[in-house]
Write a structure and sequence with these properties.
There is one protein chain. The chain is built from 1 helix and 4 strands; from the N terminus they run E-E-E-H-E. A two-stranded antiparallel ribbon has the order 1-2. It has a two-stranded antiparallel ribbon with strand order 3-4. The chain is mostly beta strands and 72 residues long. Helices cover 7% and strands 43% of the residues.
């Protein structure tokens, strides 16, 4: 299976560079190849574990991307 690299956070301030599986998009959705991603102030509470119901479950912060839609 193809993968991508991302920094994920588990718990509080526990960042780790990981390889994650690329998942096929559902019907009606597209895949975007992310070229750059910003992590802003609104991601801070997620990194702190405050807004996540299960802070031990890994999450990849960041939602401000520059990317290219990919043909499938």
């Amino acid at each position: 299976m193809r993968t991508y690299r991302a920094y994920q956070v588990t718990g509080q301030h526990q960042f780790e560079l990981v390889d994650r599986n690329i998942v096929e998009p559902e019907p009606g959705h597209v895949r975007v190849r992310v070229l750059s991603c910003g992590v802003c102030h609104s991601d801070f509470l997620g990194v702190e574990g405050v807004l996540r119901p299960d802070p031990d479950r890994p999450v990849v912060p960041g939602h401000e991307i520059i990317g290219v839609m990919q043909r499938l």
